[in-house]
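User: quick one, fold this
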Amino acid sequence: MKKLLTLAAVLLMGSAAAMAQEAKKWIQFVDENGIEVKDGSVFVVNEVTVKEDPDLGTKETFMQPKLSLKNVTDHAIRIQMRIDATQMPNGRIQCCMANACKAKSESIVWASASAEIAPAETMFIETEWFLNKIAPTWDMKLTGQLCEDDENESGDYPVADAKGPEVTVRFVSDPTAITGISTDKKANAVVARYNVAGQQISAPQKGINIVKYANGKTARVVVK
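Assistant:
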């Protein structure tokens, strides 16, 4: 009996290892151009976006790794993303999968909502770091995970213990290395605005505005 149990355990471990390898084959991270970001890569983000709503008088500053998850198989799979934000210095991380959004302001490891991806399809992982202030460079790890097909009593889809590819997102938010953020009010004064066609505009317009500051820096500002 003991030998049988040992053999079963070995077979189970072998099956789990095989599934983990399959997960790495089935899921890929890709950038905004559709190019694979390989397992174990470091993906640097140094662009800051400021989102303004003049009607509400609100402004949010965030950095977004423009990454997607791709199903490279010939069948639909359900995936989830593991987010290791234990180094997050301030603010919050928000992640949306198939319009199901979760956000955490704690420096912890957590999981996004799950979503089904059709064969050979790519799903944008709308993940942003909303920062409260300039912070040192820090790393966040994103791991694609396979989920089981059937939901449990809580309505969740359990992870199939099969971690896929992992990417380290490196946020470089040092003031000397980014665009559009300054703690100096004079340096942060807006001297010109342009639309996406490069035409100068006299006031904020809905959509993407290219803003030029007195310190020579520029930023993309999304106006609702």
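User: anything notable?
Assistant: Residues 1-17, 175-185 have pLDDT under 50 and may be disordered.
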